[in-house]
Amino acid sequence: MDSSSSSPEFDYLFKLLMIGDSGVGKSSLLLSFTSDTFEDLSPTIGVDFKVKFVNIGGKKLKLAIWDTAGQERFRTLTSSYYRGAQGIVMVYDVTRRDTFTNLSEIWAKEIDLYSTNQDCIKLLVGNKVDKESDRVVTKKEGINFAREYGCLFIECSAKTRVNVQQCFEELVLKILDTPSLLAEGSKGVKKNIFNEKRPQPDASTSSCC
Known about the structure:
It comes from Populus euphratica (Euphrates poplar). The chain has 209 residues and is an alpha/beta fold. The chain has helices at 26-35, 75-78, 97-114, 139-149, 164-176, 179-193, and strands at 12-19, 47-56, 59-68, 87-93, 121-127, 152-155.
């Protein structure tokens, strides 16, 4: 049985955040990545949370992935979850123009407002490419947006699992490539493992000279 006092089972702990309009498939994407299954899920209420252990770039990683609700009424609730995130996944639905438009009108502004990590890696994901005949947002538009906002970009389908694994892998590899985020990730591990309070030196035994 694993004891919590044994050495950590992972090298880094990364916090990832998923944002975007309601119904774009954030939860389905997360489920597809963490459990290799697909479900058409109902909209998230507030915030959902999943953990996935992966080996990427020769490192053992613990990914703590926060899936936020897209509805406006939950926005104030989800703003605090931007804090300390090393990676942010912005998801839109390639068959719904409004979900793409809202990236610049709402979500990019939220990142600017709430993200505390200036080196935080952003990934733009166009979901539902399995519905190619219903597509209204072109791949070129996605590429242009990503270029303008300094994001990585990938199109995928939570349903067919096309590019789902690559989506998170690319994000994590970029985080591993960013020294300041790597330092944050290793701090997270230490906090996680050594969460007991350090004993304070006893005043009677400490001496100034």
